[in-house]
UniProtKB/TrEMBL annotation:
<protein>
    <submittedName>
        <fullName>Putative insertion sequence ATP-binding protein y4iQ/y4nD/y4sD</fullName>
    </submittedName>
</protein>
<keyword id="KW-0067">ATP-binding</keyword>
<dbReference type="Pfam" id="PF01695">
    <property type="entry name" value="IstB_IS21"/>
</dbReference>
<dbReference type="InterPro" id="IPR027417">
    <property type="entry name" value="P-loop_NTPase"/>
</dbReference>
<dbReference type="InterPro" id="IPR002611">
    <property type="entry name" value="IstB_ATP-bd"/>
</dbReference>
<dbReference type="InterPro" id="IPR047661">
    <property type="entry name" value="IstB"/>
</dbReference>
<dbReference type="GO" id="GO:0005524">
    <property type="term" value="F:ATP binding"/>
</dbReference>
<keyword id="KW-0547">Nucleotide-binding</keyword>
<dbReference type="GO" id="GO:0006260">
    <property type="term" value="P:DNA replication"/>
</dbReference>
<dbReference type="InterPro" id="IPR003593">
    <property type="entry name" value="AAA+_ATPase"/>
</dbReference>
<feature type="domain" description="AAA+ ATPase">
    <location>
        <begin position="105"/>
        <end position="237"/>
    </location>
</feature>
<comment type="similarity">
    <text>Belongs to the IS21/IS1162 putative ATP-binding protein family.</text>
</comment>
<dbReference type="InterPro" id="IPR028350">
    <property type="entry name" value="DNAC/IstB-like"/>
</dbReference>
Amino acid sequence: MTNPNDIDAGRLSILLNELRLPAIKMLWADFAEQADREGWPAARFLSVITEHELAERDRRRIERHLSEARLPPGKTLDSFAFDAVPMISKAQIMAMTAGDSWLAKGANVLMFGPPGGGKSHLAAAIGLALVENGWRVLFTRTTDLVQKLQVARRELQLESAINKLDKFDLLILDDLAYVAKDQAETSVLFELISARYERRSILLTANQPFGEWNRVFPDPAMTLAAVDRLVHHATIFEMNVESYRRRSAMEAKRQRARPPVYATINEAAQIDAPRQLEE
């Protein structure tokens, strides 16, 4: 004889599929058993399983947004050397990643400094933290995006391509300085900046200060207009520090030159001998 409970469970499984509630479908039986055993009121049982469903939806959403963000791996705020960039306030960065109101207002973040100073790392780390807090982010090299927009322009789809980027609360444009100096390329970049002005946020990294942007935008009027739109509602970070990559390489070189920690007197003497000869 068929057990009515089995029929009810099978029907519930079908209904939960129809309602697209996979977490509840997977967990309800265990929680129902616990509720029966501990005498939970119905409201508590419903509250527990719906909380798990919402948590699972959040997890899946963050997973999707991380996939579409195209962030470089390993770039987190925990791994960023704030002590090597003393002009950057960790407290300020943490407040920014909480979202505050700057993303809702379409405000921008601009990072300037020489190559190797940590701009890309910090930009990607901010992007990662924002995704984890529920925002949608896209990280891209400026040259790559410009080339895609150029293709869209040739196919008469530029407006549509720019509109599709509206789904991202923050667009991270890495290495502005590497955009080619061609008028056609820089004009599509300018159109993107103009389209997002006061609507969607841009985080931009650049090696050159504003005074040298005429090398990026060959038209002086376009340069002025682009700068004006970017800085109007912007937080600007000047990261003028020695290259992190160069510091790491020099430190590794010094480590190789040091005597072993447990070296014998003879081994240490052999390592120091070339130095003495040079002196």
